[in-house]
Amino acid sequence: MSLLRIIYLFLLPVLGLFTTTNSIASDQAASWDFGISYTAELMHNARGGLETGSTYMDIAELNFTRSSDNGQWYGYLFYTNNNSFSADKVGDTQVVSNIDSEQMLRVMELWYETEISFGINLKAGLYDLNSEFDAIEPAGLFLNSSHGIGPDYSQTGDMGPSIFPFSALAIRIASDLGAGWSLQGAVIDAVAGDPEHPKRTDLTLSSEDGALLAVEANYNIHNWRFGIGGWQYTQPTEVLSEERLEHNHGIYALVRIPINLNSHSGFI
Q1: Which position among 27, 58, 93, 158 has the lowest Cβ density within 10 Å, counted as fewest Cβ atoms?
Q2: Contact (Cβ atoms closer than 8 angstroms) between residue 64 and residue 32
Q3: For residues 129 and 195, what is the distance between their CA atoms, to the nearest angstrom?
Q4: 3-state DSSP helix/strand/coil percent for the chain, to nearest 5?
Q5: d(CA 198, CA 194)
Q6: Measured between alpha carbons, how far is residue 165 from residues 62, 63, 168, 193 in Å?
Q7: Of 73, 175, 79, 165, whose CA–CA distance to 125 is shortest?
């Protein structure tokens, strides 16, 4: 039995009892938020790559949040068309656009988050690793995927490490240690989605798949941020070279510093 399955079998009934017991008292205070967005991109490969030409890509997104005194539920689903700029025109490894995907309708995230005690926060469900790990705020200003999660991390796993467009079941625990320090760790199903049916949202946990273990520590002070993190797969998994690596692991570091250009503040 996989480590992730053992944790889920033990923890999810406890979470279910906790949310059910407290839902009667908190329903009147609960609030719902919904969001809908549509993003479109037109990209052109002028020279090199697989072939020159243009590609139109788009993504429609729906998300909801249900918040109460005890915690919150969050859900996010998306629909993308069948156009791929990287696969058809560029031929790069990590994709140029962060919305590049084959056509699919998928539930990307569906999790419950709550404070359990003493500043310890727990999140469990269908989870996007890059929403909290190896994520730095200024990266959102750029289009290319390499400005987000690093390719050494994003190209691990048989379907990737639970990042767009494939996600997996996970349990994440985060703690505010005080004095600007924070620590978070996650146990994630090592195979995001179903390799044989990639358009399906798959929630299967298997001992053969194993788990992805992730950890990250951060220090924030005066808008400066320094972070270090790492990952470890418990079972052999594919890497960028298409080999199966038995002990796939790695580390990364993050630095965010404020700058001042012509009296306008920004970050790098």
Answers
A1: 27
A2: yes
A3: 18
A4: 20, 45, 35
A5: 5
A6: 14, 15, 10, 9
A7: 73
Residues 6+ apart with CB under 8 A from 243: none
Is this prediction's pTM over 0.85? no
DSSP H or E segment with residue 35: strand 31-45
Q: What does the pLDDT look like over 221-253, one tens digit per residue?
A: 988 999 999 999 998 887 666 666 677 899 999
Is it true that the peptide bond before 165 is cis, omega within 30 degrees of 0? Answer: yes
CB of 147 closer than 8 Å to CB of 96: no
- The pLDDT of residue 259: 82
Residues of the chain short of pLDDT 70, as ranges, are 1-29, 143-145, 239-245, 261-268
Instruction: Note whether 215 and 185 are within 8 A (CB).
Output: yes
Q: What is the residue whose two structure tokens read 């329903």?
A: 27
Q: How far is 64 from 73, CA to CA, in rounded Å?
A: 8
Q: Residue ranges of the domains in the chain?
A: 3-29+105-267
What pLDDT is attached to residue 9? 47
Residue 174 contacts residue 120 (beta carbons within 8 Å)? yes
3-state SS class at 193: coil
CA–CA distance, 49 with 62 (Å, rounded to integer): 33
> Across the strands, what pairs with 169?
126
CB 134 within 8 A of CB 252: yes
Q: Residue written as tokens 């407290």?
A: 22
Per-residue confidence (pLDDT) for residue 132, from 0 to 100 = 95
> Given this model, what pLDDT does residue 23 score?
46
**Is the torsion defined by CA of 95, 96, 98, 103 positive or negative?**
negative
User: Which secondary structure element, helix H or strand E, spans residue 43, and what is its range?
Assistant: strand 31-45
Identify whether the C-beta of residue 221 lies closer than 8 Å to the C-beta of residue 229: no
